[in-house]
Amino acid sequence: MGGKMKKIIGLVLICLLLTIPVMAYGYRKLTFKVRPDLNEDGCVDMDDFGILANCYGEYDMKCDFNKDGIINDRDKSIWIGFYNMGCT
């Protein structure tokens, strides 16, 4: 095998080694289960939305559903996905 081919194979292996942990982290993150029942009454409803709305502008870990360190529209989208899906 020529020197150029060894460099290409080496770069491909490095890229794979750097990509696998990111893929694994992304997989765990996507499969993370969250239920935005903020008042813990068993239902995701407007009472929970009121609590979420009060979290905007400050950090409260219980309102950060996607765990990105910011309470924003992404967290609201997660709440919307669970809204009125029934109670547990």
How are the secondary structure elements laid out?
Elements: H1 3-30, H2 46-55, H3 73-82
Key features of this structure:
mainly alpha, elongated, Type 1 dockerin domain, 88 residues, 0% strand
Folded structure, characterized:
- There is one protein chain.
- This protein is mostly helical.
- The chain folds into 2 domains: 1-32; 35-88, Type 1 dockerin domain, CATH 1.10.1330.10.
- The protein has helices at residues 3-30, 46-55, 73-82.
- The longest helix has 28 residues, at 3-30.
- It is elongated and about 65 Å long.
- 11% of the residues are buried.
Compact description:
The protein has 88 residues and is an all-alpha fold. The protein is 55% helix and 0% strand.
Low-confidence segments, given as residue ranges, are 20-32
Number of structurally distinct domains: 2
If you average the pLDDT, what whole number results?
Answer: 76
CATH topology of the largest domain: Type 1 dockerin domain
Q: Separation of termini? A: 62 Å
**What is the second-level CATH architecture of the largest domain?**
Orthogonal Bundle
